[in-house]
Amino acid sequence: MLALPNLPHTSTPEGLDETCNVVLRHWGDPTELDFEAQPHWDLAENLGIIDFQRGVKLSGSRFYTLHGYGARLERAIISWMLDLHGGEHGYTEVALPILVRREIMEGSGNLPLFADNLYHDEEDDLWLIPTAEVPVTNLHRDEILSSDELPLCYVAHTPCFRREKAAAGRDTRGIKRVHQFNKVEMYKFVEPDTSFDELEALLGNAETVCQRLDLPYRILQLCAGDISFPSAKSYDIEVWAAGSQEWLEVSSCSNCTDFQARRANVRYRPAVGERPRFVHTLNGSGLALPRVIIAILENNQQPDGSVVIPEVLRPYTGFDTIPAK
After folding, report:
1. Keywords assigned by UniProt (predicted)?
2. Cβ-proximal residues to 197 (8 Å cutoff; 6+ apart), any chain
3. Residue of 62, 162, 163, 267 with catalytic role
4. Model-level pTM greater than 0.90?
5. Among this protein's residues, is 291 annotated catalytic?
6. DSSP letter assigned to residue 222
C-alpha cells in the first residue's frame, strides 16, 4: 500500500508527462534587456558572489559557495519571505530538524519508493530532508486535533538535500539544479471541505512573493502524469530568467488531500462526540532560493555588469546594488 500514489483530483488534467501541463495565466511580461544579457553563472562569477570551483573542491559536482553580496542576498531573501508569510499571510514559523527517522519519510510519502534520491546515514537510520514538507507533515503525527485548531498553517526555512539521480547530465551549469539548497516552505493542515479553497490561497501566497520581487511568472496546472506521488492537484509557478532565456520553477503548490494524513495518522475531531477524521494537508514553496536568486540576478543586471536589488529586499540586504568589479 505504501507504494501506491494518491489519486488525482477530477480537476487535474489528463496527461502522461510535463508536455500535457496547462498554462493557466501569466503575470508581467518577460524581461527584455537592450544589451546582451549574461546567464547567472557568468554574471555571478564576474561579480565574485558565487564560486563554483570551490564548491566542487569542497563537495563535488552540483555544489557552490556564496560570498559577500551573494551570501547576504540569500540571507535577506529568506528573512523577508519568512516575515511576509508569518506577518501578512498568517503562518506560524517553525524551526525543524533536517535529519529525520525512516517513518517520518514514510509519512510524507518519500519512502519507500524514492530512497535513491535521498541522503541516508545507515548507522543511525536518519535521512536528510529533501524539503521541510517532510518534518512538518509529521509534526502532528498520531495526534487528534480539534476542529477549532484548524487550519494550522506553518512556514519553515530549511536547507534541502537531493541526490538528483534522475537529472544526471541535465542543468549542469549554474545553480539551477544542485544537491543542497535553501527553501522556505508553506504548509497547511485543514478540514477536508476547505482544502481546495486553501490550495488557491496557498498559491496566492506564493504568487505574492513573485509579485513583490517584480519577477514575471506563469502558473501551470500539472497533469496527472506530472503531479508528485502524494498530490491530488498541483500548480507550479515558473519565473522568467532573462539571461538564460527560460522559465524556472520556483514553487510547486499541492493539495495532498488525506494521503499524507493517513500515512502519518493525523486526524481531527469535527465536533464533540464525533469520530475523528483525517485532515487534508497542503504544501507549497514560498519560495525555493537558488532559482529566485537566478531570476533576480539575470532580470536586474545592468549594462556595466552590476545588479539592482528589488526594492522590498533593500531593508534586509543593507544595499541596493551589487556593484560590478
Report:
1. Aminoacyl-tRNA synthetase, ATP-binding, Cytoplasm, Ligase, Nucleotide-binding, Protein biosynthesis
2. none
3. 162
4. yes
5. yes
6. P
Packing angle between helix 289-299 and helix 40-47, nearest 10 degrees?
80
**HEC string for 189-203:** EECHHHHHHHHHHHH
pLDDT digits (tens, 9 = 90+) for 196-231: 999 999 999 999 999 999 999 999 999 999 999 999
263 is catalytic: no
Q: In percent, how much of the chain has pLDDT > 70?
A: 98
Q: How far apart, in whole angstroms, are the C-alpha atoms of residue 301 and residue 73? A: 14
Verify whether residue 62 is a known catalytic residue: no
Contact 73, 43 (CB under 8 A): no
177 belongs to the catalytic site: yes
> Residue 232's pLDDT band (boundaries 50, 70, 90)?
very high
Among 143, 218, 249, 314, which one carries the catalytic annotation?
A: 249
- Choosing from 244, 252, 254, 285, the catalytic residue is 252
The angle formed by the CA atoms of residues 286, 249 and 18, to the nearest 5 degrees, is 130
97 CA to centre of own chain: 17
With contact defined as beta carbons under 8 Å apart, do 128 and 119 qualify? yes
